[in-house]
Design a protein that fits this description.
mainly alpha; 150 residues; single chain
Length: 150
């Protein structure tokens, strides 16, 4: 709940992961900085971090990292008043997670549940289901491209 303190620690972690060359952890740190920026209300900075994180995850071909960042991008889409996009992205992330038989990590559950609930509330059940299903039907690379669009 303390974004300022969290930012300090994540920025330190990012510096270390870059120094030791741990690209996968760099993805997570960038995504975490995106989340912190979103929670602080700086949506422009949040988008920059999300794009950096997702671009790197995609370059590495790490599906779990792509999913993690796509979930944060979905939460950001909500903050940007785009609940349909959020529902599509979270649906795509869920389908990808199921495709590799990966569970939703506890660290991501809160953001996931809030994103789903807020998108459903904004769109209504029928429109949410349609956007969710559209996301689930996307190929992962298509979902990544949609997530990277501003």
């Amino acid at each position: 709940g303390n974004c300022a303190e969290a930012r300090i620690h994540v920025e330190q972690s990012l510096a270390i992961t870059r120094e030791i060359g741990d690209r996968s952890k760099e993805v997570w740190n960038l995504s975490d900085l995106g989340q912190i920026s979103r929670l602080e209300g700086d949506l422009v900075e949040a988008r920059v971090f999300c794009v950096q994180s997702l671009t790197l995850a995609n370059q590495l071909g790490e599906i779990t990292d792509i999913i993690y960042t796509m979930e944060e991008r979905a939460a950001l889409a909500l903050a940007e008043a785009s609940p349909q996009r959020a529902a599509r992205l979270v649906g795509a992330a869920q389908a990808a997670r199921e495709g590799i038989a990966a569970i939703l990590p506890p660290k991501q559950q809160g953001t996931h549940e809030q994103t789903v609930a807020a998108a459903r509330a904004a769109l209504g059940d029928e429109a949410f289901a349609a956007a969710w299903d559209a996301g689930r039907a996307m190929m992962l690379n298509e979902a990544v491209q949609q997530a990277l669009e501003s």
